[in-house]
Amino acid sequence: MPHTPYTPDRPPMPESPEQLRARIPGWGADLDPKDRPAVPQERHEPEGTGARRRGFPERQPEERPRERSIEHGTLTPVFGTSAPLRGLSGVVRRYAYRRFGEGRAAHWLLLIAADRVDVVESTVLDAVRGRPDNLIAETGVRGELTHHGWSSRVGAGRVDVRHEALDPLIVAGPWVLAGLGVVAGVRALVRRARGR
Amino acid sequence: MRAMVYRGPYRLRVEEKPPPRIEHPNDAIVRVELAAICGSDLHLYHGLMPDTRVGTTFGHEFIGVVEQVGPSVENLRVGDRVMVPFNVYCGSCYYCARGLYANCHNVNPNATAVGGIYGYSHTCGGYDGGQAELVRVPFADVGPAPIPEWMSDEDAVLLTDAASTGYFGAQLGEIGEGDAVVVFGAGPVGLMAAQSAWLMGAGRVIVVDHLEYRLEKARELAHAETVNFAEHRDVVVSLKRMTDYLGADVAIDAVGAEADGSFLQHVAAAKLKLQGGSPVALNWAIDSVRKGGTISVMGAYGPIFSAVKFGDAMNKGLTLRMNQCHVKRQWPRLFEHVRNGYITPAAMVTHRFGLDEIAEAYHVFSAKLDGCIKPLIVPGAG
Fold it and tell me: Given CB atoms, is A171 within the 8 Å cutoff of chain B?
């Protein structure tokens, strides 16, 4: 007997609607698409959800210059004020927002680079301020002891465990290589300067 | 106030922060009673999301009590117990007027490609989230809703994202009576999508993952058939065999950016951040669904390019549907389903942590220890 796609009919349901209704609580309750609240996804003024038209909202005061995407025609009337731009990471982020649209990889790659700079800046700054990072506590690795780290992995057949041993190498490798490159570059420059 | 604070990839701590204040006349301040860690929070935690700044507080799933309201707030009063959708949205822009609350254009100056989300980086607007004692809730007249008296706190907090997103994912799949539906990912969103697929008349629901304890939950909670992809040499071929070589009618990607199952894809995305996400689940969805089938993408991906098998999608004539969930639109119908016991979000909760234990909570959830499916954070505990 040929398999389904080689013949015109769809495969029969393994169980009838009656059987499914008896076995699965609520089977078919939303069978009619009209009962599904996001169908169609775009529907003018869907009812019963509390949203209401109020015109353009009042503007939140911009207490300090707020970076924004150049794909926006204006600063949005409401915005988050967590963690304003600061330091070198702030300079990179401001440049990424001012210079590149969201369609450009440079925009996002600069923002990711700034994230890494921010981590270094913040770690140093807080150490100087007397609130040094406690890497053991912050990574939560204590959970390995309190929540069965060993037995959750060994013998569980998880695919992530297969490459877990390599992960630190993969994550740290590019940083170590980049660091070695910087050191080699600096040494070469120093050597050249001394040679002169 | 005490709040979880991001310190860098895989690192966070609890700090004393200035309490949030009313910054716009329609703001409210909510004292958080219960928050959750979402699978998508792990993308931030792992340093995958651009413009995730040190010092920000995560958390877009939370419920609490209104502590303060701005002068223009009419729908909320101090003391109301509210559940807050993860979307920050105005209710009045071009997109909100069409019910696309997740795509609101008035709340996120940092990007036009994504709306506003609590505690989800500056790429999503730069709002602090609810893994804290207090949180600022903009457009308080629009997003938050009172928690019905009959509803448990666990159901309420899960309805602010995971449960609504899973249900929304099943809707985007345009499931018809008797359809075979395959759900990739047995996390909270995948489990809810699987439960919801039955409500829409699915004839079969198959859930794919590699974590056996989650697949067990899929069988027990979502009455689904399960496939542990770690036991299959080629999961796409196995799914074809299971569907008599036709393929499923609908596939739902409930995994997103950090999918495992392809070493190269996973390393390039999750470890080296060379692509916006590891589209392993999405590519399996494209390859395992039947020609002319529908794919619903609920998994979150970063804004840069990802190696998606678009040629296969085109040649197979697939319909790809996706969006962040417009949470509050789902609620009236979902409340009925929860009340009737058709959908059981609270049954996914496996762990509760105090705010002081939040670094441990993230590690346990991220490393999938101790059978963790959904961890909750209780700011008032301890």
Answer: yes
Q: Both B298 and B358 in a single domain?
A: no
- The interface predicted TM-score (ipTM) is 0.95
Asked whether B227 and B248 are in contact (CB, 8 A), the reply is no
Q: What are the pLDDT digits (tens) for A69-113?
A: 999 999 999 999 999 999 999 999 999 999 999 999 999 999 999
Same domain as B131, residue B199: no
Instruction: Give chain A's mean pLDDT.
Output: 92
Least confident of A11-15, B57-61, B292-296: A11-15
pLDDT (tens digit per residue) in B115-129:
999 999 999 999 999
Task: Report, in angstroms and rounded to the nearest whole number, the Rg of chain A calculated over CA atoms.
Answer: 28
Residues B208 and B133 in one domain: no
Q: B331: part of which helix (H) or strand (E)?
A: helix B327-340
Residues B156 and B63 both lie in one domain: yes
Q: What is the mean pLDDT of residues B341-370?
A: 97
Domain boundary among B322, B353, B370: B322
A9–chain B nearest CA distance, Å: 11
B213 and B243 within one domain: yes
Contacts of B121 (CB under 8 A, 6+ apart): B44, B49, B50, B51, B52, B53, B56
* Interface probe with B: pick from A49, A136, A146, A167, most Cβ of B within 10 Å: A49
Same domain, B292 and B332: no
**What residues contact B209, with CB distance under 8 A and at least 6 apart?**
B184, B185, B186, B187, B190, B215, B218, B226, B228, B229
Looking at the complex, does the CB of residue A62 fall below 8 Å from at least one CB of chain B?
no
Q: Report which of residues A46 and B212 the model is more confident about.
A: B212
A143 contacts chain B (CB < 8 A): yes
pLDDT of residue B119: 98
Per the structure, how many domains does chain B have? 2
Name the minimum distance, in Å, from the CA of B127 to any CA of chain A: 4
* B271 secondary structure, DSSP code: I
CA atoms of B14 and B31, how far apart (whole Å): 17
Q: What is the pLDDT of residue A52?
A: 61
Nearest CA-CA distance, residue A183 and chain B, Å: 22
Question: Does the beta carbon of A53 lie under 8 angstroms from any beta carbon of chain B?
Answer: yes
pLDDT computed for residue B382 by the predictor: 58
Output the domain CATH number for residue B50.
Answer: 3.90.180.10
In sequence order, what are the residues at sequence separation of 6 or more whose Cβ sits closer than 8 angstroms to the Cβ of residue B328? A49, A50, A51, B85, B87, B101, B143, B145
Instruction: Please give the share of chain B, as a percent, with pLDDT higher than 70.
Output: 100
- Structural domain boundaries enclosing B128: 2-161+326-378
